[in-house]
Write a structure and sequence with these properties.
- The protein is an alpha+beta fold.
- Helix content is 16%, strand content 37%.
- The strands form 2 sheets. A 6-stranded antiparallel β-sheet has the order 5-1-9-8-6-7.
- A hairpin with a 5-residue loop joins β8 and β9.
- The relative contact order is 0.23.
């Protein structure tokens, strides 16, 4: 089962980089400068380089009105202008973490879930997407719970 991993659109976040620090605080967001490698950008699905500007913002990754409606903090790098989009490739920000993978049906209800070392996530994506009742997957960092990305059938 081929899978496709997609990053978020940069258009959703460009306005944050034009805001003052006070405006960001009022929006529940925060401007940071990456101090060490490892901050995962949810647009590029790459680690943000030390010294680069990022915003930490609360993002509603499951806006549908279901019991699973959900939002969580994510990082977005200023220089991320192209959303990640690849078939059968697990980006480093997923591959290098323990991840929770949740399988949703067309009604946005969880039908299956598992936790896996990101290095082994491709096999889990394939297994979950082989279930015909699964419409898409959401990947979260298992330790902090942050939304990591969406996976669909390719």
């Amino acid at each position: 089962m081929a899978f496709r991993v997609r990053g978020l659109s940069p258009d959703l976040f460009s306005r944050y980089f034009a805001m003052s620090d006070a405006e960001l605080r009022a929006a529940g967001a925060l401007r940071l400068v990456a101090q060490e490698p490892g901050m995962p950008c949810r647009v590029s699905m790459a680690h943000i380089a030390p010294g680069d500007e990022v915003v930490l913002v609360n993002y509603e990754h499951l806006p549908e009105l279901t019991p699973y409606r959900s939002r969580h903090a994510i990082y977005v790098g200023r220089g991320s202008t192209q959303p990640y989009d690849a078939v059968d490739v697990v980006p480093e920000v997923i591959r290098t973490r323990l991840v929770s993978v949740r399988a949703f049906d067309a009604g946005h209800m969880i039908v299956d879930a598992d936790v896996v070392d990101g290095a082994d996530s491709a096999a889990l994506f394939e297994r979950l997407l082989a279930n015909p009742s699964v419409s898409y997957l959401h990947v979260h960092n298992a330790k902090r719970g942050c939304y990591s990305g969406r996976v669909e059938r390719a």
